[in-house]
Design goal:
Elements: E1 3-4, E2 14-20, E3 32-34, E4 38-47, E5 50-64, E6 71-85, E7 93-94, H1 96-106, H2 146-149
Antiparallel strand pairs: 1-7, 2-4, 3-5, 4-5, 5-6
Length: 155
Amino acid sequence: MMTFHPEELHDDILLVRETLPPSVLDLDDKFARAHEPVEVDLQVRREADTFFAAGRVSTVVQVQCGRCAEWIPYSVTVPRFHVEYKAPHPEIIDLTPAVREDILLKLPHIATCRIEDPDSSCAILGVGLQPDSTTPSPSLDTDVWQSLDQLKIND
């Protein structure tokens, strides 16, 4: 846990550089697993009765690909982590919940293997992921509203 005592921080800047265990993410999800440590590099400062923590947070989470169902590494970086704590303050301020929240908010809803071009393949399986050629792609001149124009609504 990353904690500090507010009464001990006056005009100084507190540097928080820690490596947290993956368990701080409390990631209990069937599509994501936390196995890598969380790297934290923050500065905590005080302005009047408000404390500001800002910096960078990063980790790598294993996520399940929505295409091939294989587990793939997903790098999560919060380059501009920022949280503030206004008075009244508890005896000890814990930064861990805010770090956890920002990392979890960066996770994708559905992760996929990264495919940069149509000739590429799944990074894990090596299988090509081309669109089905038997399914016609809609052209730009197709009237996409035609079906709605045919809709009859009874008042």
